[in-house]
Specification:
The protein has about 140 residues and is α/β, with parallel strands linked by helices. It has three helices and six strands, in the order αββαββββα. It has one domain (about 15-135): Aminopeptidase (3-Layer(aba) Sandwich), CATH 3.40.630. The protein is globular, with a radius of gyration of 16 Å. The model has no long low-confidence stretch (mean pLDDT about 95).
């Protein structure tokens, strides 16, 4: 419903889906390479134009984060009604490496949690605004 309302009001919609991923690989994951990066940007060839990926990658790296595309997870979230049907529904997933903000052994936040979360929110906001300015 949110996507539909956004399309009605603005003619387009940008979905930002934010998650975290474990700092160490899990046995069931196909890619077992070391996770020496901070942010995974999940993309979809239909809903994530290259310009969206480029903006988010550039902003995160400018703010000191190491990024990967579609590793360890790939794709984006788009409601089925619009999936691969509506080019005005844009989507990117921002996955954050848990090593940045928590001790995964005891699940306690690191002292850097507040600063990291603020920096990530700021970077996501700057990236989304830059993309939307290009669209207008």
């Amino acid at each position: 419903m949110l996507v539909e309302n956004c399309l009605k009001k603005f003619g387009e919609c940008l979905i930002l889906d934010c998650h975290s991923f474990p700092g160490n690989t899990r046995p069931y994951e196909p890619n077992q390479s070391e996770r020496n990066y901070d942010i995974c940007l999940g993309t979809n060839s239909f809903h994530t134009p290259k310009i969206i990926f480029d903006i988010f990658k550039k902003k995160f790296e400018k703010d000191g984060f190491k990024t990967k595309q579609n590793i360890p997870f790939s794709g984006t979230i788009v409601p089925a009604k619009y999936f691969n049907k509506n080019k005005n529904v844009f989507s990117i997933i921002i996955e954050v490496n848990r090593k940045l903000y928590m001790n995964e052994n005891d699940f306690y936040r690191k002292s850097s949690f507040s600063g990291i979360s603020s920096k990530i929110c700021y970077t996501v906001n700057k990236s989304a605004l830059e993309f939307l300015k290009l669209k207008s």
